[in-house]
Amino acid sequence: MKTIQVQELVQQFQLEVLAGSNQLDRSIMKARVYRPGLEFVGYFDFFPQQHIQILGRKEITYLHGLTEEERNHHIGNIVKYHPPCFIVTAGQDGLKYLKKYCDEECIPLLRTTENTAAFIGKLDHYLLKVLAPEQAIHGVCMNVSGIGILIRGKSGVGKSETAHTLIRRGHRLVADDIIVLKKLSQHTLLGTHNEKTKEFLALRSVGLVNVVRLYGRRAFQEETRISLDIELTRWRDNDLNNDLDLEPQFVEYMGVNIPHVEIQLQPGRDVAGLIEAACNNWYLKQQGYSAMEDFMKRLDMN
Question: Which fold has domain 134-298?
């Protein structure tokens, strides 16, 4: 299971450390933050103790309104579960009692000036990506007209050369050689680079090129949601290469099914153009139009 340390949050979001400064190496394993509510009145049956605890205006205002004895009792019940950290939003103050308990229990107490809703949105999004399950595969990841694709195939089949042609046509490179896939949900797969290969494309007979230096910032993007898996294969003479495939094909990565297209290579074929056509055809299907269904209807009319 992937983890990050509280210190990384402090740096990423420029958080103020109010207590537990010597405990910033504590691990965070859960991607969703939590705002305690029922826990303040003693109900802990479903308390997600491994999640970051957010204290917004609602929570802090409630605590300020309690007597010292009530406040100490309610806060004491929560801190004994030792969540990774507490984050107070909207720059709220008057937190002496929180500092006391967090110091005693060695729990980081952090603060941000951002409002609660905006901060939770940013933090959830950040945690979802950095803690997402990962898988590294070999190939090229591109964004073609806003559609994220994987280009796979055996070594030397022409993946990087095809990617170069697509870049020249105005599309964007995400990763070459090593693609890092992140599973954000049961239906969402994100493709990105591994930092070391960022912006680089390896072209046989030419060498390593930096696409940003060659073609500008528009030639590269950090990540993309994967919508299509395209496999480049050698031409097979015995195959029926003009068949109209009625059944959609899929490939699975970490439990996420991605539509799959195989493109067989032959001298003279415009592979980059075929990839653009596959992407545009996929987009039309998402809009509810199927060329195959349209064609079959026309046949039925005759």
Answer: Rossmann fold (3.40.50)
